[in-house]
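Allow me, if you will, to draw on your knowledge of protein folds for a short while. Thank you for your consideration; the sequence and its tokens are set out here:
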Amino acid sequence: MNEEILPLLNELIDRSRRTETRLTKYLESIGFDTRVQRPYWNGHSVIVPTPAVPICDILAVVPPDYASDEPIPVRCKGQFVMEFYRTENFDGAN
């Protein structure tokens, strides 16, 4: 019986997370403070609250006019997590 229910429970958990994410983004878009910590740009690197931040959120905080041949570091709680390079067709929104 557990083998039959486990996939359904996993699907339910996944859908709940997606619903929570959408609701949080909507509430923030209308000005409600959800106290969710988001990544931010500190002038030369991206600071993330947790390594589990989606890549699209990390890319979205890099200013569109930032131009450098140097890698862009990503840090979490003062520790280096990763780095990436900006390319010609880089679009932080996608």
User: Anything to note?
Assistant: DSSP finds two helices and four strands in the chain. The beta strands are 40-41, 46-48, 72-76, 79-84. Helices lie at 2-29, 55-60.
